[in-house]
Design goal:
Layout lengths: L1 H13 L5 H18 L9 E3 L5 E6 L4 H20 L10 H5 L2 H4 E8 L9 E7 L1 H10 L8 E3 L1 E9 L2 E4 L7 H13 L3 E2 L5 H6 L2 H5 L3 H8 L6 E9 L5 E9 L2 E10 L2 H20 L10 E7 L4 H13 L3 E10 L2 E8 L3 H8 L5 E3 L12 E6 L3
Parallel strand pairs: 6-8, 6-9, 12-16
Antiparallel strand pairs: 1-5, 2-4, 3-4, 6-7, 9-10, 10-11, 12-14, 13-14, 15-16
Helix pairs in contact: 1-2, 7-11
Length: 381
Amino acid sequence: MIFLFTQMLSVRIKNTHSGLKQSRKGMWGLVMTLMLSACLLQSNAYAVTVRGLYEAEIPVADQAADSRRQATKLALEQVVDRITGTPYWRDVYSPEDLATNSQRLLEQYSYDRSADPSAQLPWVFKAKFAGSALAQLLAQQGLPVWGQSRPQTLFWIALDNQGSRDVLAEYQESPMVGYLQSAARHWGLPMLLPLMDLEDSSALNVSDLWGFFASPIETASVRYGSDAIVMARVYQDNAGRWTGLWQLRVNGQQLSQGELEAPSQDEWAQQLMAAVASSQAKKYAITLDENSANLVKLQVTNVRNFRDYVDVSRMLQKLAPVKRVEPFYMDRDVVRFQLSLNTAPEQLEEHIALQEKLHPILGDGNPEEIGYWLYYQWGDQ
């Protein structure tokens, strides 16, 4: 299979006559057919694919038209929170103006009974919006769009509850854990809490976390393999408000930090997730530009067979900054792609850094390689 593909691609490259355009379309169509027909497993990556970005659920009292219109408006705002990654989109595009497009963007809806029989709002309105149309609308407003590929973030949170301090754990029965998980879903954040088993307890104590000592926290985080780490401490002050500090670290470096204050644990959790999402969106969300002509040439070595080629191609095509992927050279284990981007090449590198199987390497310094080049090696380390 790889021999056949190499020969096909070689013929396509070597034929430089004016009649190449039609044969190129036919050849590329055959290559794409082979790619799409290959039933291959997706490779693991540091990034997590977040499903349902354009879907939302809103509790409602009934199925009347007025209730549906209001629920559609709220659902759309929730989706825009998630795909922009920041509550500050409202400073650019008012929710009222957004709501005028809600019916046009609504792709499908349904109702379910609430899972809680005692709920004051007995129905759940489920909405799904048209992703490409919404992304285009936000681009027209100059707002960024954050794709499905997002870094899994490990949250180390020390909670002081009436003088007793604990590190929140993944399976802990705590209201704060539930609030954090709900807020993470709202913002589309792949959240992970530590297990706080014997290994975690031996590597880290609550005083290390309360004091924001980064070294023991990062040591304890190694087992989880997360690129992003959040440290936080929160307590209830004398006025009954929940107050705390937080810090986001990415690859061993502080990316952002802040102080939060809220009247309840639920609202504090929402504020924390909104702040973390906003910080990450600044790094990974892109402002789509249909007229962008940014081109990057990317060389990948250690592509040993057709399966590797398909995996690399699929991974590149799924990156949010990438509009189009075109291979133009293959020789032994080396494949070169030309990528058309929605944004600056530097932001492409940020997204590739989330992929576990692509590792940056030094280029070979070929003087004939004109343009913006990136060099990577494919495979596990």
